[in-house]
């Protein structure tokens, strides 16, 4: 086997690559334009470039952050999907949660629910039922199953979701339904709710299973095709993984089966890398700010541990699988700016993507984007982008002039400043949503800016938000791809069993935890992990009786056996107090679900700690260019990132150019370079702001 690890993160505009030499710990990076019609084209091109440069390179580990499933869901381009439910309950999917989502939709008189991925015409009822305690009330009527499958066959379905009542307790009926489908429609993919999400709450379980069925053939075909093309390229390692929403990776095969678990595949890599940087630098409280070409993803990390959720909403659809707690807004370098009929400047949500891309890419785009605005303001240089092609400032200026400046009666530079100000405010609101809205004080947090556009905006946003500082990693433009190499293989197992905590005994809980542990261990062993590299982390979903939501509380067998349920109860009260600012120690508590996170620990990515060479900071200055800041235009020194040395300090205004991004330092802000070549930016008047 070789000594090289490769990761690939596919974005809306660029596909990012990282090659790590495990012996020297040296990192090579690359960015190429994405190929939205077939993302594997860009993947193979980039990996092939690494191999062409050195034929002796053999790849031992490959990890991919993909947006294939995400895009198919957002664009509603999944496969024709059927749904089988318990007879008499066909309306559950259509009714959804009976309520509008929070936010603007609450006041939208023309609001429509998202379209059903498996409409009523492709939904069939199955006779047979278990009750809430797992007792069989009605035996499975196999003829009703066959009749329902025949009707779905007439609809030419490519995938079928099966979600029967209380199958999380008794999966036998669902499994027999799968067998019947296989007999009659062997080419059709099947997703069982008892496999995808065996937990309580009917609609989230059903919605997640339908989404999985809708995406599964697409993701599975893409990964099978990618594996075949990688093999042709000479990448034959069995260690080929896909990033999941939970911050861990999964094999190509498992990811193809559980496509819904990849919906936050790309953003999860950036959060994983952010948590590693938090540990490495000793900065306890950070917020990751990943701004790419089409979107911006933010996440809060405390104690080097990112937040986790057990469900979320993507494009109006519920996905109840474990995921990193990431908030996403439509704000990226390719986000389009326009002026509406009322003369209001709007930025987003539409994006120019990679085709045609921003006007300055000279690929046919004529509408102004955030990237065009940054180029007009002088933040970006026109000489290169990702080391691949130049930026045309004249086309950027013309796009901003025609679509924004003339309509608002502004100078082109002032119009560009308005575009950047508006997009910054939108992204700052996302950061407030995961921090101050939850009781955190942003003055205690450092903003980690990365992605192709993140370092351009991070310093200004941290200044506006009165944050403690900004950390720009050594390779910010590809940090999400680097995070893919840092992630362990991870599988989540869950079993719902509602019971009052006071009614449980240690033997019952231990038995369930042991069953989940055995399943998690067997799955990881099948993937080649040994006892020494397997980590099992049990937890309980708990709530006060009468609540409609749960909190995840980590537990151990030692805690249960030696300290009893009193310790579990106390841990829940503490978690509730920290999360919501109050607790109720005298109220009864229920255990809703049991969870087991199984991790296959991969060798750690050890970043190089550099020593100062004694090079003067002035030697890193490679030129000047005018740039627009709040104080007006300023002749701004340009630093080359690869010439900055450990211990270098400089004051803004300053711009740092590098292959994968550009770093903007505002006037009065101070920047210094640490031993890992991160740039730490201190906001102006930080102490006074506190």
Tell me, briefly, the overall form. Answer: globular
**Residue-averaged pLDDT:** 92
Considering DSSP H and I runs of 4 or more, what fraction of the residues is helical?
25-40%
Strand content: 25-35%
Q: What Rg is obtained from the alpha carbons, in whole angstroms?
A: 26 Å
Secondary-structure class: alpha+beta
| CATH fold-level assignment of one domain | Rossmann fold
Number of helices: 17
Q: How would a crystallographer describe the biggest sheet?
A: 9 strands, mixed
Task: Kindly provide the name of the CATH class of one domain.
Answer: Alpha Beta
Low-confidence stretches: none
The number of distinct β-strands equals: 35
- The termini sit apart by 53 Å
CATH architecture of one domain: 3-Layer(aba) Sandwich
Describe this protein with a few key phrases.
nine-stranded mixed β-sheet; six-stranded mixed β-sheet; Rossmann fold; Dna Ligase, domain 1; 690 residues; alpha+beta
């Amino acid at each position: 086997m070789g000594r090289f690890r490769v990761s690939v993160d596919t974005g809306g505009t660029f596909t990012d690559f990282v090659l790590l030499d495990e012996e020297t710990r040296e990192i090579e990076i690359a960015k190429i334009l994405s190929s939205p019609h077939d993302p594997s084209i860009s993947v193979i091109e980039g990996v092939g470039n690494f191999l062409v440069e050195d034929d002796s390179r053999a790849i031992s580990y490959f990890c991919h952050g993909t947006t294939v499933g995400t895009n198919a869901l957002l664009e509603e381009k999944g496969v024709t999907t059927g749904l089988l439910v318990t007879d008499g309950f066909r309306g559950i999917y259509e009714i959804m949660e009976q309520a509008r989502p929070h936010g603007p939709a609450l006041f939208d008189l023309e609001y429509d629910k998202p379209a059903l991925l498996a409409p009523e015409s492709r939904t069939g009822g199955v006779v047979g039922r278990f009750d809430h305690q797992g007792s069989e009330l009605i035996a499975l009527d196999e003829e009703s199953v066959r009749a329902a499958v025949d009707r779905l066959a007439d609809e030419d379905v490519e995938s079928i979701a099966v979600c029967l009542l209380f199958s999380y307790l008794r999966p036998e009926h669902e499994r027999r339904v799968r067998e019947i489908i296989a007999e009659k429609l062997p080419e059709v993919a099947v997703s069982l709710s008892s496999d995808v999400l065996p937990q309580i709450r009917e609609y989230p379980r059903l919605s997640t299973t339908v989404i999985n069925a809708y995406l599964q053939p697409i993701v599975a075909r893409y990964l099978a095709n990618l594996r075949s093309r990688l093999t042709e390229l000479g990448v034959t390692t069995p260690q080929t993984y896909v990033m999941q929403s939970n911050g861990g990776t999964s094999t190509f095969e498992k990811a193809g089966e559980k496509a819904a678990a990849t919906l936050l595949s790309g953003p999860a890599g950036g959060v994983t890398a952010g948590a590693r940087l938090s540990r490495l630098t000793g900065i306890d409280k950070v917020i990751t700010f990943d701004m790419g070409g089409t979107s911006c993803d933010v996440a809060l990390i405390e104690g080097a541990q990112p937040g986790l959720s057990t469900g979320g909403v993507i494009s109006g659809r519920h996905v109840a699988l474990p995921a990193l707690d990431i908030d996403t807004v439509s704000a990226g370098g390719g986000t389009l700016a326009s002026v509406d009929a009322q003369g209001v400047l709007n930025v987003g949500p539409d994006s120019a993507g990679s085709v045609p891309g921003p006007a300055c890419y000279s690929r046919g785009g004529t509408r102004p984007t955030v990237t065009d605005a940054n180029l007009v303001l002088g933040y970006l240089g026109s000489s290169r982008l990702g080391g691949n092609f130049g930026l045309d400032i004249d086309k950027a200026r013309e796009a901003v002039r025609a679509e924004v400046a003339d309509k608002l009666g502004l100078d082109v530079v002032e119009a560009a400043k308005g575009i950047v100000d508006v997009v910054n405010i939108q992204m700052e609101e996302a950061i407030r949503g995961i921090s101050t809205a939850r009781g955190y004080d942003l003055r205690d947090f450092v903003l980690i800016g990365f992605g192709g556009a993140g370092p351009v905006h991070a310093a200004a946003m941290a200044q506006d938000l009165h944050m403690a500082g900004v950390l720009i990693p050594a390779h910010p433009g590809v940090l999400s791809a680097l995070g893919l190499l840092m992630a362990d293989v991870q599988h989540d197992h869950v079993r719902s069993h509602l019971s009052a905590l006071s009614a449980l005994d240690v033997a019952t809980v231990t038995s369930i935890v042991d069953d989940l542990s055995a399943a998690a261990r067997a799955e990881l062993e099948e993937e080649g992990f040994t006892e020494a590299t397997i980590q099992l982390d049990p937890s309980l979903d708990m709530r006060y009786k009468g609540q409609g939501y749960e909190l995840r509380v980590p537990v151990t067998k030692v805690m249960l056996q030696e300290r009893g349920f009193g310790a579990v109860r106390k841990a829940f009260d503490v978690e509730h107090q920290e999360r919501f600012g109050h607790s109720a120690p005298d109220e009864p508590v229920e255990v809703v679900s049991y969870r087991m996170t199984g991790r296959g620990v991969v060798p750690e990515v050890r970043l190089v700690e550099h020593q100062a060479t004694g090079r003067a900071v002035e030697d890193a200055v490679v030129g000047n260019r005018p740039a627009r800041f709040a104080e007006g235009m300023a002749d701004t020194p340009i630093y080359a990132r690869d010439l900055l040395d450990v211990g270098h300090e400089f004051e803004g205004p300053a711009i740092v150019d590098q292959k994968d991004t550009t770093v903007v330092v505002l006037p009065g802000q101070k920047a210094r370079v640490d031993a890992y070549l991160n740039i730490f930016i201190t906001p102006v008047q930080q102490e006074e702001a506190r």
